[in-house]
Amino acid sequence: MRKTKTHVILTALIFSMSMLLSACNNSGEVTSDEDGDLKPVMYFYPMEDNSTISASIDYDGVFSTVYPDFSSDNTWNFIADKDGTISISDKEYGYLFWEGTHNGNYTITSGDCVAKEDLVPFLEDKLTALGLTDKEKDDFITFWLPRLSQNSYNLISFDNSQYLEKAKLLINPSPDTLIRVYMTYTGCDNPVEIAQPEEIITPSRNGFTVVEWGGSEVKEYNKGGLRL
Fold first, then answer.
1. Stated pTM of the model
2. CB 213 within 8 A of CB 132
3. Quick one: which of 48, 93, 180, 213 has the fewest CB in 10 Å?
4. Measuring CA to CA, how many Å separate 74 from each of 17, 31, 61, 217?
C-alpha cells in the first residue's frame, strides 16, 4: 500500500515538473543543423556598376558552409553592380552566403512573444523598421517562416549585439551604410513574458550600402535569460 502511494506521489510530481518545464520549449526534436549561425547573407549595393569590393569575416567559430567559396582566407573578392548583382569568376550571385557554429552562447534578455498566426505581419513590420527592402524581407521570411511556424509561440529578439562580437566584418571600400539584422528565437508552447526590446531607429540607406541578415535558434532557459 505504501509503495502504491509513493508511486502515485512521484508520478504526480514528475507530471507537475514536466508541465512547468513545457511553458517554453521546442515543439519537436531539434536536429544538429539548427545549431549555430544560420544563413547570414550579405547584399552589396555600390554607387557605381563594376565596383571592386572585398569582404572578410573575422568569425569566433567554425564555418560549416560558404557560397560562393572564399577567394582567400575568410575573404571574398568580387565585382558588384548598383542593383546588387555580385560577379565572381564570370558567375553572378544575388548575395554572399555562409553558415557556421559559433563559440559560446547567445542570450535573449528582451524581445517579443509572437503567436504563430501573427508571425508574418510581425516580421514584415520589424524588418521594415530595421531597414530591409521588400526583396530582402522576402528572402528573410521565406527562409525563417517554416522554422518559426513549427511552434505555437516564439520568443523573438533582434538584438544583434552578441552576434556582432562573434562575426566581425571588414569591407573594402567601407560602406556608407551598413545594416546587420540578426534574429535569435526560441519556440514556446504558451505565451511567455519577457522584457520589451528597445525602440528601433530605422537606418537611412545612403551611398554604398551593405545589408546582412541571419539568425540562430536559442534552445535552453536559465535565470539569466534564454541562451544557446
1. 0.83
2. yes
3. 48
4. 46, 27, 12, 24
